[in-house]
Structures are given as C-alpha cells and as structure tokens.
What we know:
It contains seven helices and six strands. By secondary structure, it is an alpha/beta fold.
Amino acid sequence: xxxxxxxxxxxxDGPIPGPHSMLSFASVVYxxxxxLIATYSANLELLxxxxxxxxxxxxxxxxxxxxxxxxxxIRPPEEVMPEYAKWVEGLPGKPVFVAYPAGFDFTYMxxxxxxxxxxxxxxxxxxxxxxxxxxxxxLPYRKTVKPRLPQAWFEDFPHTHVALxxxxxxxxxxxxxxxxxxxxxxxxxIGEDLAAYVEAWKAERAAAKAxxxxxxxMPVGEA
Length: 223
C-alpha cells in the first residue's frame, strides 16, 4: 500500500493544547502523484477550563473573518476526534502527516487524538515541510521561510488562516517539492536504496582524510 500525504492545518487560541484549545483543523489528502483524493475539516468546542493565550487572542483580533469562520458549526472534540481517526484509517493508503511547521500542528493533533480518540492513526511521527525545504534548498534552518523558497513551488491558493484553505495551500506546496526532489533523484540516477551511494560517499571522505594526513606527515621539502 502506497503512502499518501495528509496535509493538516490547525488553528488554535494558544501555543499548546490543554491550557489552550484547538479552534479548527483540516486535512487534505494527496497521492504521491499530487492527486487530491479527500478532505476533512471541523470546528471544535473549546476545552473546559481552557483559555485563549493573551498574545494569540490579540493576533486573532486582526483576523476577524477567520475567527468567525472557526466559530461556526462547532462540535465537541469527543465526537470529532474518533470520527477523524476512523476517517484517516479508512483512507486508501498509508497516511503520512504533513504540516508546516509540523511541530505545532502535530502537537495539537496528537494530543487531541490521544485524549479523545485514544489513538493516533499517524503513529508518533510527522513530516515537517520546513525541514524538507531546508534539505532541498541548502538554506540555514532559521532562514528557511516561505518568502525565500522558489516561487515555482507555490500555487495560487489563498492563505486565509482558515484551516481548509491553508491545508490545501501547504499540501500543494509539499507535493511540488516532492515532485522536484523525485525528478532530481532520477536525473542523478539515485535509486530508492541509498546504501551504495552512502558507502561511496564514506570511501571518498576516508580517502580525502587519508590524503590530508599523509600530506601533513610528509617532511618539509618533500611535498
């Protein structure tokens, strides 16, 4: 069964789940060929006893349309999260959680899934688009930001801070990056099994190191 990419966006009223609540989330599912095959989205009731973080709530005041969209048709998380877990488990492929940045979105999704569904269909891991972008571009991690990425990777999707819109946007971005990487591997003749390439790389490094050490050990005037 092939892997499929579940691009997921979370909108919340604070930096961490528990003290703060997930307002809304959405997942869009792409195949490795960039075919959009499914979507899921939900707006959630706030957690009992939780409160919005002051800084986050100040930011939300600047996005009234998005805030209003997240407060429509709200549902209890104890109803939504089991339903969502079952939806993911029924997808036609091995689901890979994808987000930008995954550290935020997966933290919320994992906490809510374990708290209200008792399981996480993505296991313990997530694919971070920012890290993948760093690997492809060679940029320092802290400087790997969307304005510095190749614009050819982006498509004409709006970034509205509405979960479904943003999940579609980042999913298309990831698929374009994935397609670029696959094309470069094919161009370089790199297969799925990297063992031979890694061994050759190690041998080259060892030879270079030996040459440097030999040169350093050579008596002056004999070089």
